Amino acid sequence: MTGTSMRAGDALLVVDVQNDFCPGGALPVDDGHAVVPVLNHWIGTATDANLPVILSRDWHPVDHVSFHTRGGPWPVHCVQDSWGAAFHPELRIPDKAVRVSKGGHFERDAYSAFDGTGLAHWLRRRRVRRLWLGGLAEDVCVYHTALDARRHGLVTHLLLAATRPVFADRQQECHRALREAGVILIAGQ
Ligand SMILES: [Zn+2]
């Protein structure tokens, strides 16, 4: 079992903590905003240790294929440059944070922060071997991002206090699948 503290070779990945995924947004996750103070704590830890902090964001063009208006599974959300696509205003984003935008193709959706972004390549170049992640939503974008992190050979820690599901009834199944893939689930802060 690995420890629960960050060290050289680690990076923090904050997945899609955007207005539309928080209460008041277009596709709100129950209690979604509650991840912000927890993630701020981890951002502080990573920044103090001079480790990379990466923020992914859902960043869709108008008329994106995932929207109800196109027959997709989701309401219109995270349209590029809209208020809903902005990071939560209380998220303490370090100056040096790396932004990764996904879902920018009209005809194709991307749940994982690794999907079509080149993030795995960048992490390799930075010699990152272990990833710590949280954000929204636990059973969709965080889930697929964690699985991709494992596929890219990263030791992957999911911070349970820093994530919330959009479908709460899927949470246990998600945890089981993540554990099976070798993702380390970190309880508490
Ligand atoms: Zn989306």
From TrEMBL:
Metabolic or biological pathway, per its Swiss-Prot or TrEMBL entry: Cofactor biosynthesis; nicotinate biosynthesis; nicotinate from nicotinamide: step 1/1
Hydrolase recorded as keyword: yes
Boundaries of every Isochorismatase-like domain copy: 11-186
GO BP: any one term: pyridine nucleotide biosynthetic process
Cross-referenced Gene3D superfamilies: Isochorismatase-like (3.40.50.850)
Alphabetical list of Pfam families matching this protein: Isochorismatase (PF00857)
Record key words, sorted: Hydrolase, Metal-binding, Pyridine nucleotide biosynthesis
InterPro entries: Isochorismatase-like_dom, Isochorismatase-like_sf, Isochorismatase_Nicotinamidase
Gene Ontology molecular function, alphabetical: metal ion binding; nicotinamidase activity
E.C. code: 3.5.1.19
Entry similarity comment: Belongs to the isochorismatase family.
Name the UniProt record assigns to this protein: nicotinamidase
